[in-house]
Amino acid sequence: MILPPSIRPYRREDRPALDDICIRTAYSGQDGRPLYRDPSILPAIFASPYVHLEPGLAFALDDGQGRAVGYNSIEMVGAWQTADVDSGFTVRLYDQASHGADYFLVHVTRQGFDPTTQPLTLDDLEPVATTGSYGPSRNYSIPVSTSGYSGHHVVCTIWQASHMDQTYFPCSDVNFG
Hints:
InterPro entries: Cellulose/chitin-bd_N (IPR004302), GlcNAc_Chitin_IntDeg (IPR051024), Ig_E-set (IPR014756). GO terms for molecular function: monooxygenase activity. The protein is built from three helices and twelve strands, in the order E-H-H-H-E-E-E-E-E-E-E-E-E-E-E. By secondary structure, the protein is mainly beta. The strands form three sheets. Strands 4, 6, 8, 10, 11 and 12 form a six-stranded mixed beta sheet that branches. A four-stranded antiparallel beta sheet has the order 3-2-1-7, covered by helices on one side. Strands 5-9 form a two-stranded antiparallel ribbon. It has helices spanning 15-24, 41-46, 48-53, and strands at residues 6-9, 58-62, 68-73, 83-85, 88-94, 101-109, 120-121, 125-130, 139-145, 151-161, 166-168, 171-176. The chain folds into two domains: 6-73, no CATH class; 83-176, Coagulation Factor XIII, Chain A, domain 1 (Distorted Sandwich). The longest helix is centred in the first third of the chain and has 10 residues, at 15-24. A hairpin with a 5-residue loop joins strand 2 (58-62) and strand 3 (68-73).
């Protein structure tokens, strides 16, 4: 049975896919293999420590068939922070590599979704903002205007990088007050 793609907790069996993704995107989003005699050093430094030391802080983009096709980790020590927001808020993203964007799509989990007990799927997300393209920059601000949300939600942004076929999925916990 094929399920829709979803973001799920990292699993130990995702490790080969995580290593491969890290290597294939290590050179400013491009394949890092031509640059290193031993490209396995890249995930050993930049990805594996997070999933080894804090696997509960790592997440995979599951293709719906159980395969990890993307990953992310919360790369900081400390408690996960939930931001208090109003119906109008701004998504702020920092881009060290200055990728630019073909577009950003900002989504909020549907009212009634409980991120503490339910896995997040694309069906749980409602679009709240869509942008056009952005040129290369290190800082992006996306104004968002919503209505009808209260309580704990997840804001998930789909960021289509403009330099290649590469997509990022930054997510944040928020509390609509």
